[in-house]
Amino acid sequence: MSVLKKDRGESAVQFLETARNLEIFTLRTCAKFPKRYTFLITAEIAQLSRSIYNNVKSANSIFPTNQSEVQMRRNFFTKANCDLQCLVSQLDVAKVMFGEEVKVGTWCQWMDLIEEEAKLISAIKKIDKERYKDLPL
Question: pTM (2 decimals)?
Answer without folding.
Answer: 0.88
